[in-house]
Amino acid sequence: MKLHTNSFLFAVILSLTALSLRAQSVSPGKQTIDQQEYFGLNLNQHISEKYLSKYWESYLDKFGKVKSKRGVYTIEKASVPSVSHTPVKITSQINAGKDLSQVFLALYANGQYVTNASDDAYKNAESILKDFADYARVREEARVADEIFVSSEKSYQKQTKENDNMAKEIEKTEKKLTELRAALEKKKLEAGNSLIDLQNKQKALETAKGRIK
Hints:
Elements: H1 2-22, E1 26-33, E2 36-45, H2 49-60, E3 67-69, E4 72-78, E5 88-96, E6 101-109, E7 112-113, H3 120-210
């Protein structure tokens, strides 16, 4: 069972790694948030929005104080030296799709959004999202591994309990069989004594009948 579980766990983690590597491409994008249009970058991930949101909020924390409201993450004065030496306003949202979750990141620096793919600032913004993809992947692998371990542990505990219950039933059955065998031996002895008594009574009957002329 342990070998099977480990093999399954390895397969799941390998699959997650492959999916993450395929989904690391970053592309320009725009998003309407609270009726305002933002321009930035998109990153697609094969991770549930529920968990990706947690990883993303934790990751953003290194740039400054994150405010989260209805799935929108903002940092008013973020420190992102690779993009700008002046404070950067970060606005981000994670959207859930059928097979993918998408991270949208808008960086507003020096009076404009980082959108020009030929600029170093854009390339560094791309690097931020790709770094986050690795950050999220290792945490998702750990989460899935933990989930599989807990599931396997519960399965093992269930099987162990069933085995213990079965062992107790066998023990009870064996005890009952021992009692039944002892009772049977006693009955056999009683039946043997009854046969001897019957035979003696038969002889007495024959003797009594023999005296009749």
